[in-house]
Backbone:
């Protein structure tokens, strides 16, 4: 079952710099891969959120879906997820997607990838 990694500490994660703050304006998203993990980073009103770019319904890409506030709608079958937490909001997805901690340091956005992954 996917895990909400947002509460992991710096000792439990490797924080990976993914972009400068100015490279991801509000309303935009950034796709990246680290350790064979596809992640999508969202800037919603100046706050950054990161989830795995994989729908739990059929493992299809999630980040290309329509963003409605803090909800991403899967482009394949319409499952909905909260990008802040990874929580599934509607079927057909059976489980949440992993959500990762995000921090900004010296103008760089860093995403925490659990060491145990």
Residues:
């Amino acid at each position: 079952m996917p895990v909400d990694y947002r509460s992991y500490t710096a000792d439990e994660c490797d924080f990976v710099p993914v972009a400068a703050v100015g490279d991801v304006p509000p309303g935009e998203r950034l796709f990246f891969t680290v350790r064979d993990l596809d992640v999508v980073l969202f800037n919603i009103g100046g706050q950054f959120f990161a989830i795995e770019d994989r729908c739990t319904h059929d493992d299809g890409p999630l980040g290309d879906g329509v963003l409605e506030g803090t909800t991403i709608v899967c482009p394949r079958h319409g499952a909905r997820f909260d990008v802040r937490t990874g929580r599934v909001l509607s079927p057909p997805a059976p489980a949440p997607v992993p959500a990762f901690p995000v921090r900004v340091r010296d103008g760089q956005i860093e995403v925490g990838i659990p060491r145990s992954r």
